[in-house]
Amino acid sequence: MPQRRSEAGHPAVESLYPFLYASTSDLPAVLAEVRRSTVAKAAEIMELRRVIGERDGARMAACAQEAARRFAAGGRLFAFGNGGSATDAQQLATLYLYPGGGSTPLAAYNLASDTAVVTALSNDIGVEVVFSRQIAAFGRQDDIAVGLSTSGNSANLLRAFDEASRRGLLTIGLSGYEGGKMAELDSIDYLFVAPSSSVHRIQEAQTTVYNVLWELTLAALGRRKVRG
């Protein structure tokens, strides 16, 4: 019998979901383990969100107030990240562009979404400049730069934050683990760290953080009440 692909080539997947690769075919036992695993993961992310809320709630409110001030002055938001974080950056930008409920859209852009620009800069210069070059071209003093990374170590984010800070942008970082190299930067005004070693839990927590910042920013602008 040929060896299963997951066992042969993806041990990390098997370590996350061992019940899917057990030698027995006891369906009730598998379903019970799936339920246990799901409940455990839900409890883990809820606890992580609670920790972040208690530790950073006041800072998130202050960050949102400053973001609202800049939007009111005509500022724009530039979001950026790599891989899955680029997808989160797109969702973040979309929140501001299409707030719903009759609210006026706010100018927001995902710097990872222009394939031509990203590939040209990566090919001609280097991937480390794909965000900093765009901020240098478009960034103004009243703008906002939001960078997302699970590790906090992405070189192109570090350069982007330095460039944004030099130009007077409000800089907001979302990271995981213990913050990585982003925690060492003086160029990030507000850094929100999801203290976890699980990429899945980090990204789930970051989604919560930027949704809360969005809600608080709209509330500070008087465009929407914060949901209770």
Brief description of this entry?
This protein has 228 residues and is an alpha/beta fold. The chain has helices at 5-9, 11-16, 27-72, 84-97, 115-124, 132-138, 155-166, 199-220; strands at 77-81, 108-110, 144-148, 170-176, 190-194. The chain has eight helices and five strands; from the N terminus they run αααβαβααβαββα.
Q: Number of domains in the coordinates?
A: 1
The average pLDDT is: 88
What's the CATH first level?
A: Alpha Beta
Instruction: Give the overall shape.
Output: globular
- Helix percent reads 40-55%
Distance between the termini: 56 Å
In which order are the strands of the major sheet placed? 2-1-3-4-5
Name given to the CATH homologous superfamily:
Glucose-6-phosphate isomerase like protein, domain 1
Strand content: 5-15%
CATH topology: Rossmann fold
What about the largest sheet? Answer: 5 strands, parallel
Helical/strand content category: alpha/beta
What is the annotated CATH architecture? Answer: 3-Layer(aba) Sandwich
Number of helices: 8
* Low-confidence region ranges: 1-9
| DSSP strand tally | 5
Radius of gyration: 20 Å
